[in-house]
């Protein structure tokens, strides 16, 4: 829980007495690679803060093809915010790409932390706005960017994931074919581009 | 200002005394068709609540092609929330597709209304979460849906726009070619599908 502690104390600026109260209200869980945390039709009851490991959220279309909405590694939060907030069935799967240690954050926790601490409230507000910013950029990339620009953006957003995630999943996230991704990677290698 | 009044009083549940205070703090403006309200590189200082008319936000790629991020007609708010919240340069254009009457909502207004009224604060929180929900659905559609499903979704989201917006703009919003949109519309007509 080292990362989650740092998240609450440093990023959300929660002081020690409030921290002691709040830390009792979260749950820690070890998730095995391949384990499914959320299925379409279920209401998303938690946000998953990732201590160690790697989760993804994705949809499956009528033809059975997976489309990756989000990756989350250390210090990321993976969730279906809409399902959790509006208490409505999710469209998403969430599962583990690696063995993963998560902190389960409930809506109750967020409400309580927001009541106790104005700095948490501010931090949560910034996190929401950041989510909107990130989604807006993603929409723009999906509408307008070449496969190369999408991949370059992926590397910038997720610098630690290019070697941890199978290529087909990266292609799925980018909305391009695995063949396009392979071509882009070859061209970048040819230009001596170093992602890591 | 009939729509904006309804928005504050009914939707955000602002009582008369607070309403009288707040209504003084917004600005009304008539925008001519084609007028540009925001350009890339500028910080977005306002959200535009649409009383009457039609705005759009869009990006222009390196080849000069426009990609429409959002349409907004009566009772919608068009903005670059990220630019406004983080006080950073926008990537977007916002302009008027029709002569439009807007209410200019500043960050100061939102902060003040949130302080005065807990129901406004709640409403604003729901609006943020709605925005996230809408963007998430859009990302999923762009990643996984056929041209027909994208168009059907457009009609559902913007039922009054199919006749007000040029076809090429709808295709741009959907991330499909005008030819694909034309084909989809013909197929739907053939199936006797009535959008309006």
From TrEMBL, chains A, B:
Residues 10-106 form the Cyclic nucleotide-binding domain. Signal peptide: none annotated. It comes from Arenibacter algicola. Gene3D superfamilies: Jelly Rolls. Pfam families: cNMP_binding. This is Anaerobic regulatory protein.
